[in-house]
Amino acid sequence: MMIRSVVLVGAGNVAWSMGKALRTAGLDILQVVNRSLLGAEALGQELGVSTTCRAEEVVRGADLYLIMVRDDAISVVSQGLPFRDGLVVHTAGSVPMQILSAHQRHGVLYPLQTFSKSRLVDFSRVSLFVEGSTPEVCQDLCCFARQLSPMVYEAGTEQRQWLHLSAVWGANFVNHLWGLASDMLREHGLPTGALHLLMDECLRKAIESENPHRVQTGPAVRFDQQVLDKHLLLLSGDPRLEHLYRMLSQSIQTTAYDLQTKTS
Ligand SMILES: NC(=O)c1ccc[n+]([C@@H]2O[C@H](COP(=O)([O-])OP(=O)(O)OC[C@H]3O[C@@H](n4cnc5c(N)ncnc54)[C@H](OP(=O)(O)O)[C@@H]3O)[C@@H](O)[C@H]2O)c1
Questions:
Q1: Is the CB of 132 under 6 A from ligand 1?
Q2: Does the C-beta of 36 come closer than 6 Å to ligand 1?
Q3: Angstrom distances, CA of residue 156 to CA of 133, 160, 162, 201
Q4: Ligand 1 close to Cβ of residue 175 (< 6 A)
Q5: Are residues 180 and 216 in the same domain?
Q6: Cα 211 to ligand 1 centroid, rounded to whole Å
Q7: 67 Cα to the center of ligand 1, angstroms
Q8: Taking the model in full, what pTM does it have?
Q9: Are residue 24 and residue 53 in the same domain, yes or no?
Q10: Rounded Cα–Cα distance for residues 228 and 223 (Å)
Q11: CA angle 224, 214, 170 (to 5 degrees)
Q12: In this structure, is residue 162 part of a structural domain?
């Protein structure tokens, strides 16, 4: 089945970017449904579609109902939909597809990107991971997803949970470290942009390398104990940062050692 018409359920970070992407792709957005009418109306107005906050007013017969609400609300919101014969899909990385099993046809469309209302994301640069309750649903969702992005993959619930976890390492933790580095610069009178070119080059190098471990640089991978000790001394007034520094340096060294023994 070709998915052409969509009802958006939710009006948060993902719903805003998704709504705009669907409109750009020329898909038919029938309605925005949301817990608060105010949130629904803001997005509905942007997209020029009708809105509701009442489950009984949800339009019937859409090809797809896309649930984009907080993870812990997906179950209750999906069960509140006043039908069981529509295709109902959520967009969460760490929520099993099974949570939607009250609906005959269900699935997942997980966009592996970071979304905020204040910064709309171009979906053609988002990898989309699809799971379907049947092979047909999976195929329909893949075709639908390809209208938004060329990067569409299938991934089951367990794989998607690992994907989500890897995104926490590859994006959330890295961003946290960028934040800590920026605090350090600010506290010591240095320009906060001082690291931008370095961050940019590291990211490019990691992406282009076949294995980011192999392009690791810095005192830990060089096993330069003198520099490590100097850094630990600088951090001695801050047990949290000292602990993090030790753990990360040890992890870099263990990985470097394993890599070396594997290749020698
Ligand atoms: N943000 C990301 O970077 C990202 C990336 C990939 C996937 N996802 C997934 O996409 C989904 C939406 O994420 P988001 O960041 O867009 O979330 P969000 O902005 O926090 O979503 C808020 C939405 O959830 C609704 N909501 C919250 N609690 C509710 C409840 N108890 N009952 C009914 N509705 C409730 C809100 O309604 P009100 O307007 O009434 O408050 C609003 O529509 C999540 O499953 C998330 O895991 C997010």
A1: no
A2: yes
A3: 10, 6, 10, 34
A4: no
A5: no
A6: 34
A7: 9
A8: 0.93
A9: yes
A10: 8
A11: 100
A12: yes
pLDDT at 111: 98
What stretches of the chain show up as alpha helix (H) in DSSP? 13-24, 37-47, 74-80, 135-146, 157-167, 174-187, 196-208, 225-234, 239-263
Taking only the tens of pLDDT, the chain with its 264 residues reads: 899 999 999 999 999 999 999 999 999 999 999 999 999 999 999 999 999 999 999 999 999 999 999 999 999 999 999 999 999 999 999 999 999 999 999 999 999 999 998 898 999 999 999 999 999 999 999 999 999 999 999 999 999 999 999 999 999 999 999 999 999 999 999 998 999 999 999 999 999 999 999 999 999 999 999 999 999 999 999 999 999 999 999 999 999 999 999 887
> For position 264, what pLDDT does the model report?
76
Tokens of 203: 């990211």
Q: How many domains does the chain have?
A: 3
- Does residue 90 sit in the same domain as residue 177? no
Q: Is the CB of 111 inside a 6 Å radius of any atom of ligand 1?
A: yes
The residue whose CA has the least distance to atom 32 of ligand 1 is 73
Q: Whose CA is closest to atom 22 on ligand 1?
A: 12
Q: Is 10 touching ligand 1 by the criterion CB < 6 Å?
A: yes
pLDDT at 262: 86
> CATH no. for residue 119?
3.40.50.720
CB-CB neighbours of 229 under 10 Å? 11
Q: Which CATH number do you get for residue 261?
A: 1.10.1040.20
Q: Tell me: do 119 and 92 sit in the same domain.
A: yes
Substitution site in 9, 14, 109, 131 for ligand 1 pocket (most atoms within 8 Å of beta carbon): 14
The number of the ligand 1 atom at minimal distance from the alpha carbon of 90 is: 45
Boundaries of domain holding 226: 209-264
CA of 257 to the centre of ligand 1 (A): 42
Decide the pairing of beta strands 50-52 and 152-154: unpaired
